[in-house]
Structures are given as C-alpha cells and as structure tokens.
Hints:
Layout: H1 2-14, H2 52-55, H3 68-75, H4 80-85
Amino acid sequence: xxxxxxxxxxxxxxxxxxxxxxxxxxxxxxxxxxxxxxxxxxxxxxxxxxxxxxxxxxxxxxxxxxxxxxxxxxxxxxxxxxxxxx
Length: 86
C-alpha cells in the first residue's frame, strides 16, 4: 500500500509540465501563443491622365492604332513580317 502513495506523488510532479487546461463547452479556443499575423493591407494607385489612349488622342493614327512614329520604328525592325506590316 505504501507503494501506491509514492507513485501518486510522482504522477503529480510529472504532470506539472504537461498540464492540460480544461475548456468550457461551447467556448472558442484561444489562439496559440506562436500564431503568425497573415493580414495584408493594400491600396490601389490611381494615376489620372496617364494612359496610352490619351497620349494618342491628338496624333494621327493608322487603322491598327499606331502613330506615324511607331510605324517608322517598325520599318527598321529585324523581323521581316513586322517590317511588311508597317
């Protein structure tokens, strides 16, 4: 009988490090201590009057939407198909 008392003391000392906390029924679990915050906040950048369409509005444009300067650049292109298109 003395043996059982000694073993119960050992169990009490051993259980201190790995003690489980009893949770109430229906309550949410608390977040773990090593949780990582993964929230990302971002905002859109709006730049007024800086589109390709507004730049070409006052210039003469061909049927493919290219200006005269862009067509002249394509005439010196290394690919013969692109030179032919311009």
